[in-house]
TrEMBL record:
Residues 29-48, 61-82 are annotated as: Disordered. The lineage of its organism: Bacteria, Pseudomonadati, Pseudomonadota, Alphaproteobacteria, Acetobacterales. Pfam families: DUF3761. InterPro entries: DUF3761. It comes from the Bacteria. Residues 1-23 form the signal peptide. Residues 29-39 have a biased composition (Polar residues). Keywords: Signal. This is DUF3761 domain-containing protein. Coiled coil: none annotated.
Length: 107
């Protein structure tokens, strides 16, 4: 098994050398989780919100957790409306409104 693994690695290395366009270049790879946000985070007006929790996102930024508003209108900085009526301030689509009924609409 070890010999077969070495042969496969050698064949891949040789093929990559022959055709560099097909070689994996880690400098050009972007993980969806760590891509920069398509917009800047805008802190919501806490006076408009019922809940006041926060979380740290995959970029290490502190973001307001999904929250209900006092007037049921989208607050400043909201990016999505969740199934349970809360508004999300998420900077990434992945995971937005999880545990809140999923995304009803993007704002």
């Amino acid at each position: 098994m070890n010999v077969l693994k070495k042969l496969l690695l050698a064949a891949f290395a040789a093929f990559s050398f022959i055709n560099p366009a097909l070689a994996f270049d880690p400098s050009t790879y972007q993980d969806q989780q760590t891509q920069t946000a398509p917009y800047q985070y805008q802190k919501p007006d806490e006076n408009q919100l019922e809940e006041h929790r926060h979380y740290r996102n995959v970029d290490g930024r502190t973001i307001h957790s999904p929250a209900h508003t006092r007037n049921e209108q989208a607050p400043s900085g909201a990016t999505a409306k969740c199934g349970d009526g809360t508004f999300s301030f998420s900077q990434h689509h992945r995971g937005t409104c999880s545990r809140h009924g999923g995304v009803v609409s993007w704002l």
